[in-house]
Amino acid sequence: MTDRARPCAVGDRAACLALFDGKVPHVFTEAERAEFAAFVDADAAE
Fold first, then answer.
1. Dihedral in degrees, nearest 10, Cα atoms 37, 46, 4, 39
2. 3-class SS of residue 6
């Protein structure tokens, strides 16, 4: 099986942030959320 990834789309923002929020505090800190949101926004804009 081959894993495939596609670039983020504008409509993915809410789902990406929900996944991030579900990993706080075990993987991420709340302080990292703004940086992650900016990353998702920039990737979707490309």
1. -20
2. coil
Distance CA 24, CA 18 (A): 10
Which residue ranges make up each domain of the chain? 10-45
The set of residues, in sequence order, having a beta carbon less than 8 Å from that of 26 and lying 6+ positions away, is: none
State in Å, rounded, how far the first CA of the chain is from the last one: 28
Taking the model in full, what pTM does it have?
A: 0.79
Q: What is the pLDDT of residues 2-17, one digit of tens each?
A: 888 888 888 999 999 9
Taking only the tens place, the pLDDT of each residue in 23-38 is: 999 999 999 999 999 9
